[in-house]
Amino acid sequence: MNTTIFISEIVDELQIQAKDNDIDILDIFDLSPETPDFSVVKRQGVFMNVNFDTKVSYEFRLAHEMPTNINTFMEYYHVPSWLEADVMRTFLEFNYLD
User: Fold this and answer.
1) Who has greater pLDDT, 68 or 18?
2) Spatial contact of 70 and 92, defined as CB atoms under 8 Å apart
3) If you count Cβ atoms within 10 Å of the first and of the last residue's Cβ in the chain, which end, N or C, has fewer?
């Protein structure tokens, strides 16, 4: 499968899940590269900094703003258990940024 198509499908599925749960996803283009993505519970919105300077992909960052823990993420997205260390490392990186 073409990686670009797979990535697009992930983003599409996340957008569907957000819409089904009345969560707005907004790409922000005028934030500094140091500003991480964030969510606002009262607004039920996820704000993605398109300029965020990170090695972590957009789709993973978007998914990170939705599930609240590693197990929820892995279960929801059917991530195989052998990738748990990678998922944990990335979640810890984001927890550090939060």
Assistant:
1) 18
2) no
3) N
Q: Can you name the residues that pair with 39 across neighbouring β-strands?
A: 46
The secondary structure of the chain, three-state, reads CCHHHHHHHHHHHHHHHHHHCCCEEEEECCCCCCCCCEEECCCCEEEEECCCCCCCCHHHHHHHCCCCCHHHHHHHCCCCHHHHHHHHHHHHHHHHHC
pTM to 2 decimal places: 0.62
Rounded to 10 degrees, the C-alpha dihedral 80/81/85/91 comes to 70
Give the amino acid at 16: I
* Burial of 97: CB neighbours in 10 Å, binned 0-12, 13-18, 19+: middle
Residue 76's pLDDT band, with cuts at 50, 70 and 90, is low
